Amino acid sequence: MDLLKNKPLLFKLWIGLLGAILVLLALNNYRVNFSGNSRLLPVSLGLFTAATFMLGIYFQKVRVVMHGAAFMIVVAAAFAGFANWLPQTIGEPPALEESVEDITSLSPQELADLGEKLTFGKGKCSLCHVFGSSEHGERAPNMFGLAARANEIVQLDSYKNRDTIQTVAYDGSGIAENAVEYMAESHACPNCYVSPGYGKRGTNDRESPMPAIHKPPLSLTIDEMVAIDTWMYVREGLDAPPIDDMRLAYEKFIPEDERPQASAGGEEAGSGGENPLLTTGNEPLPDLFEKAQCTICHIIPGIPGADDADFGPELYVKTSAPKRMKDKGYTGAASSVQEYILESIMDPNLYVVPDFDEDLMPDDFGTTLNAKTLFRIINYISQLEEGKTPPDYEKM
Fold it and tell me: Same domain for 23 and 68?
């Protein structure tokens, strides 16, 4: 009863309880709305302001400090509220382009446009090939004039009586009889005929450095390859062969069980292949390197199937990275082997290893490889040291 008669004490008690309740409400509002889109997060600051002001009344000795804090929270709440009131922009991955399930619905020009996207995107053709009429391909033949040149190639004795490591795409496939079939065979079985001077180093033009593009890591579908071939014709002002003829040519050289199917998830014919994720990051390490396209250009010690590429330097990076970071031509900011590898993947032209070409390595791995893939690649490569046994990839 004495408490009820002591009005100043009773007032302070109510103020303290109300302040504590406001603090609890503010904390709960902050917890509920921190990751949401309700725009109620600044309410927490308002509640904290009221609670701080009231607790300043309760704790008389620090009232000035509490009220000063309340003022600062009011200012912060005003700015936060205004910022939250503005239209919100949420960063999301780019939406996949609408797929075209039936390329026969496209005009020749539309199909050629798709082929151009695939040539410089998912197909990675420009890594090795050039396409200008007067250009000379250092690593692979110039693709200009291929449609006309193909008819001449299939008539050559060196084509008909080839001595390559693989003379037919598969048992019973036969060889190309016209330009359309030759272009299909070149994509499906690059080893079947190697253009003079463009064979893998040390093979006397009996083996091609080019991968079969319907297989991993490129995995182009037949319709995607048809789109690329269409572009080869249309870009030179020629009429492209009928789609059905080109499909039949690819079916001649690719057995049914090897034909990639367009996935329901987005990499359909028509998606253009613009920055799809190449890996999930959960693959066995050899598969991960293959899907990430590292094995096309690099020798990766210890990884099966990555022992004969020569487009890029061997990846003894633990040995080579410290030397390269001291090179006068190095302009990067890496201070460790791991940082150097990441830098080389994200910005390959920042430092180009001597005797290798600029612009050869794609610069879009920052969007086509996820964080888990990058971590596993860097973790393995950073341990490769010349003269020492590579780590066991099965444990990584």
Answer: yes
Domain for residue 276, yes or no? no
Measuring CA to CA, which residue among 152, 156, 150, 164 is closest to residue 194?
164
Instruction: Tell me, yes or no, whether 265 lies in a domain.
Output: no
Phi-psi group of 202: left, alpha or beta (phi > 0 → left; psi -120 to 50 → alpha; rest → beta): left
Helical axes 146-153 vs 179-188, angle rounded to 10° = 90
**Do 240 and 340 share a domain, yes or no?**
no
DSSP secondary structure letters along 36-64: SSSS-HHHHHHHHHHHHHHHHHHSGGGHH
Summarize pLDDT for 86-143 with one digit per residue, the tens: 655 555 554 444 445 689 999 999 999 999 999 988 888 888 888 988 888 877 899 9
Q: Is residue 95 part of a domain?
A: no
Q: Over the range 345-356, which residues count as b (16 or more CB within 10 Å of their CB) and which as e?
A: beebeebbeeee
pLDDT tens digits for range 200-245: 878 899 998 888 999 877 889 999 999 999 999 999 999 999 999 9
Helix axes 317-325, 337-346, angle to 10 degrees: 80
Number of domains in the chain: 3
Residues 9 and 78 both lie in one domain: yes
Distance (Å, whole) CA 114 – CA 360: 23
Place of tokens 């509920």: 32
Domain extent, residue 148, equals 106-258
Of 52, 85, 118, the domain-final residue: 85
Pair of tokens at residue 46: 């308002």
188 closest CA partner among 204, 163, 210: 210
